[in-house]
């Protein structure tokens, strides 16, 4: 019981006013527009938990993974109904990855901020990541076209890129937000096409549109925090060198 209380306390600590407001506005917007658009209860719950996962993970809190699990299961069903089979498989893949992510982040939490430690990729890692996404999109696209996917290569890109980006996210790299931004923009196009074709997943479409805004906000947040940490490390190194020189 004490561990649960501590977990809840840590998850609620450190939130800034704008972060709470942004989360509230996003959740209310999805819910209201989903109701106006006569979306299903499953669609609204999937979209609100998905948005919560995106914002809370951007904050660097462990509870994001609980929201993510609910979203992954429900979104897989919604994507299957829309004949986006790669999106369906992607969210099935998310389930074990979210569990792995929870335990990985739990081992890398900052004791002071109660948020996950954030870091940056090397240029070599960025190049390899981009190459894997490009190659995977081509291969997956042909496979999806063969099985009758509604938009094979668009679906392939969002799926392959999301698989890779989930790994990047679990490893706490800031580059995940650049990747999510691109994925979110392409996925909005995918769901706009579905909506115009008669699909009633309004909340899902709104969710992805808000994901774009959230990716930009969290990218700026993570970059600022990483730069601040880097400056702090440089300052500590300089002080250590000065202290060492003084003692010698």
Question: Would you kindly provide a written description of the structure presented here, covering whatever features stand out?
Answer:
Helices cover 81% and strands 0% of the residues. It has 248 residues and is mainly α.
Structure classification = mainly alpha
Q: How far is the first residue's CA from the last residue's CA?
A: 52 Å
What is the mean predicted local confidence, pLDDT? 86
What's the multimeric state? single chain
Largest sheet: none
Question: What's the topology here?
Answer:
Layout: H1 2-12, H2 17-36, H3 41-59, H4 64-81, H5 85-106, H6 123-146, H7 152-170, H8 175-196, H9 202-247
Helix pairs in contact: 2-3, 2-9, 3-4, 3-9, 4-5, 5-7, 6-7, 7-8, 8-9
What would you say about this model in short?
The chain has 248 residues and is mostly helical.
Features:
single chain; mainly alpha; 9 helices; 0% strand; 248 residues; globular
